[in-house]
What does this fold into?
Amino acid sequence: METSLEASGIHSGGFGRIHPTSRAPTEAEEAELSALANVDEIAARIDDHAEGDPAIEADEAVV
It folds into this structure.
């Protein structure tokens, strides 16, 4: 019988642990993140409007 605190190769299926890495977003990713932030701002404005306010339709048209 063999005991160990480490998992053997049989249990990992030959795959190792995935380690995260940091990187700067590309220009395309940065543009997409900016567009998503804009959608969040518009959604917050829509939530702030009173029910039946005509400005809701104008803000929803932008989204």
The mean pLDDT is 76.
